[in-house]
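Task: encode each sequence below as structure tokens.

Item 1
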Amino acid sequence: MAELTPDQLELLQGLADAVRRVPKGQPKEFLASSDQEGSEVLALAGHYRHHGVSPSDLEELADQGLVRITERRRYGDLLFSVTNRGMQVAGLGSPAALVERRVRFVQDRLPEPYRLAQDLMDQAASRLSDAHDEHDYSEIGHKCREAMQEFAEQLYQQVVPASQQRTLPKDKTVDRTRAVLETWKPEAGDTTVALLDALLVYWGAVSDLGHKVEHRSQKAGRPLTLQDAERAVLYTYLVMAELAGLDPSLDAPGS
């Protein structure tokens, strides 16, 4: 089997994840509708939607036996399903795939209001490859903190009812995140409520980590390292993805 490109693998993993979430007895087929900007893929059941899919990527998945095209319609529209082999190759159960899907969602699939947070995280991640000293690590930490501020602000605006919103300083991300989680709690079970409480602690810890890296805080005798900057980038991606996964309107992995 030829190696899939990152875009092809992301597409396959998104399709396989949608299949797993289709209610029992519902159709597990997808419709790819073509236009000038590529294809929009919709699940016939469930809530999966992916804009801007390259038709050639779908054809490559079909050529490799990972999806099965069941009907070719006029104007290039396709009906297709994911094969058993496609589900296996998607590797949704592997820890590496779970992490990659969450990071890729934040990188590529958050809607327009979150675009600045995406861009800031892209800048932080791109700096890792040529970061060599504490000045570089500080810039990475700064970008992570800015991204968390933008993400928390947008999530707050989208989730918390306008009548309950209040003016908060930009850096009060924990307060915004707490308000978002409190908005979700009435609809959550006891176990989910406990996870929401833990997620608030997680968010605060990641925020503190970004602050430490930005301001070059260090224990006696241990300067900041590339690993500190890498940890700030990874955990910022993951905590954003976990929050996005709790918002059904974002159709994130795990939602």
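Item 2
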Amino acid sequence: MSNTNNNLPNQTSSVLHNDTVSSCSTSKVQEKTQLSRNRCMNSLRELKSQFKFISETLQDFGTMLIFKRTFAQDLDLLEHHLSKEIISQTDCKTILTKLRTTFANAFNSEFKERIQKSTRFDDQSFKDSMIRHMDFIEKYMLETILHQ
């Protein structure tokens, strides 16, 4: 019986150590998740900011009105999904794919000309920046999902 009692402090110490390590691991995962989520939301804000600028700067022409409405709705929907406690990879990837497709379809020669005339942006730089923000959103979204 005394042998069992002698092992009790070691067992208790081991359990406390495991709880501490587990708690630290959980804390690190939560930190990484929050950091990825913040980066994702920052990229989304940048994308929305660029979209707002171009929407306010370019006059409606051809399919521009449809593009603005569709892109804005999809951005809002993506923000809604990314704001949830548990992010659905399928929902977010579907919306991102739709955003990319909508943007690619709208970015035709007339769109490029109007960007050059109405703004100081080079049309290719603007396009690359929008795509880069969408790529960052996807990257940080996947990191967030990995850590949840």
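Check on item 2: The chain has one domain: 2-147. The mean pLDDT is 81.
End of task.
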